[in-house]
Each structure stands twice: as C-alpha cells, then as structure tokens.
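Support reply, case 0932

Customer input (verbatim):
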Amino acid sequence: MLNNIHNQIEKISSSLRAFSLKLTGNETDAHDLYQDTALRIISNADKFQENTNFKAWAVTIMRNIFINNYRKKVRRGTILDQTPNNYYLNSGAQVIENDGETRMAYKELLRMVSALPEDFKRPFWMAYKGYKYDEIAEELDAPLGTIKSRIFFARRKLQKMYAEAGRLRA
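Our regenerated output:
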C-alpha cells in the first residue's frame, strides 16, 4: 500500500507543487506546504480508499493544511483586549504631548535597555520594533519559549530598574 502511495504522489507531484505555489505565493512556503502535504498523505495512507480519486484527496489535504496554517498565523497576530470598554484598543487614539520630562524619561529608559545583558536586549528590541515572537526566534536561532521568557525577564528587569531610578530621584 505504501509503495502505491509513493507512486501516486510522484505522478501528481508537479500538480501539487503548482497548487502549493498558487496557494502560498512564494517558493519557500510552497515547498514547505508540499512537504507537509506529502508527509500527511504518507502518514494517513491507511485512510485512502482504493479506486477513488487520489489527486482530489491529496489536494484536499493540501488545502486543509494551508487553511489551518493561515488561521494559526491570523490568531498569532490578533490582539485580545479583555479590559473594560476595550481600554487598550481604544487608548491608541489619544495624543500625548512630549514635554521635557517625558523626553528625559525616554532617554533614561534607553540607557536602561542598553544596560540589559545581550541575551535579553536583542530580543526585547526586536519585540519593541514589532517583530513577532516566532520571527525573533527564527532570527536568533533560539526556541520560541526561550525568546518569550527572555523578553518577559527583560521587561521585569526594566521595571525594577525604572522603579529604583524613581526612588533615587525622590
């Protein structure tokens, strides 16, 4: 049965690759989608019913993988605001004047971020600049959990440093 599945995949390989490129829009993602689909087909070979349309079955698997991956990406980028009256989502429209005290606080924060250990500083800056956690993990070649914890601890350390600086000024 498995040999038959491999032969069937080879027969429709060019069609699957073209379809994956049409879905994703770029070669790298298309190759990944094709590989995921081939793996899923092979691992679920026992579910394929003989004398049915193999190509339709394979295309359906590919489409479902693509849709599920797309939904995951959308969920990662979704902001959930559970504060009363959506405080965080609605607070972005307020304009805050930048006076001298605010500029000084910002410079002080920059100095504090510069004082962080490199392992914390770089992921923190990337997150601050808008990179997603998974993008940071890929760029720094580190596990996603490690990146999340480094950013968390960088924030915690900055909070402590800022509180300490406030006590020293007072």
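We compared this against your earlier run and they match. Two observations from our side: The radius of gyration is 25 Å. Residues 2-76 form a domain with the Rna Polymerase Sigma Factor; Chain: A fold (CATH 1.10.1740.10). Please reopen the case if you see a mismatch on your end.
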